């Protein structure tokens, strides 16, 4: 009987387990902004088509992510389509623990990097800051009380999973479709938000000039992060 090989490395003490990961009562603050469609096109991987000009800036606090434990993250999600199928692409994403970073990159192709999140929240407000290597990337000051608004469709996610060759600079690329399962909302609050975007050449969040803030929201919810599907 052959020995069971662990899902990832180190094989004696894997960094993360195989999905699914059961997320409980995470809190996410999102600001939806209209930007130049040309800026989305410039940043979006080539297999994808731009679908709209309203993108999501978000920061998220995860008190319980199954075996991934507690961490925080933030980033940018843009509307796109793949072979005519609409969805969302996580363009940039910063997380605060190594197992979430590794599993996101290696399994689904999420573009995760390690960084920092400052987070203060109550039932009606969130003040959060996303940064990496001492560079502020997203700052959100959210308060309840805004008008209802129409959000872009950003699910399912379509990501490019890039697998580097150990022999050369060649890569293998796969398109991964990922849908959140068993999603349930505990609380949803529409509000207003002050938004500041920073960045640099390494993390070019500021390539997007905000033309209009369409709306902002705070969501407390659950979901199950399960295996994705290779679609290209």
UniProtKB/TrEMBL annotation:
It holds the Pfam family ADC. It comes from the Bacteria. GO terms for molecular function: lyase activity. InterPro entries: Acetoacetate_decarboxylase, ADC_dom_sf. This is Putative acetoacetate decarboxylase. The gene is adc.
């Amino acid at each position: 009987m052959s020995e069971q090989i662990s899902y990832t490395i180190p094989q004696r003490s894997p960094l993360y387990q195989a999905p699914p990961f059961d997320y409980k009562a995470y809190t996410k603050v999102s600001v939806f902004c209209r930007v130049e469609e040309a800026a989305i096109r410039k940043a979006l991987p080539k297999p994808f088509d731009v679908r709209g000009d309203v993108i999501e800036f978000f920061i998220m606090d995860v008190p319980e992510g199954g075996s991934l434990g507690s961490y925080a993250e933030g980033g940018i999600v843009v509307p796109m389509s793949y072979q005519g199928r609409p969805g969302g692409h996580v363009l940039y994403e910063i997380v605060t623990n190594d197992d979430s970073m590794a599993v996101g990159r290696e399994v689904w192709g999420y573009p995760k990097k390690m960084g920092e999140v400052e987070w203060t929240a109550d039932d009606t407000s969130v003040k959060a800051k996303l940064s990496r290597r001492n560079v502020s990337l997203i700052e959100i000051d959210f308060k309840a009380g805004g008008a209802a608004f129409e959000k872009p469709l950003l699910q399912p996610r379509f990501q490019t999973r890039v697998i580097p060759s150990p022999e050369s600079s060649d890569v293998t690329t796969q398109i991964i479709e990922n849908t959140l399962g068993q999603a349930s909302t505990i609380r949803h609050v529409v509000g207003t938000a002050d938004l500041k975007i920073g960045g640099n050449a390494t993390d070019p969040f500021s390539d997007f000039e905000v033309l209009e803030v369409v709306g902002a929201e705070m969501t407390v919810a659950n979901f199950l992060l399960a295996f994705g599907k290779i679609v290209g």
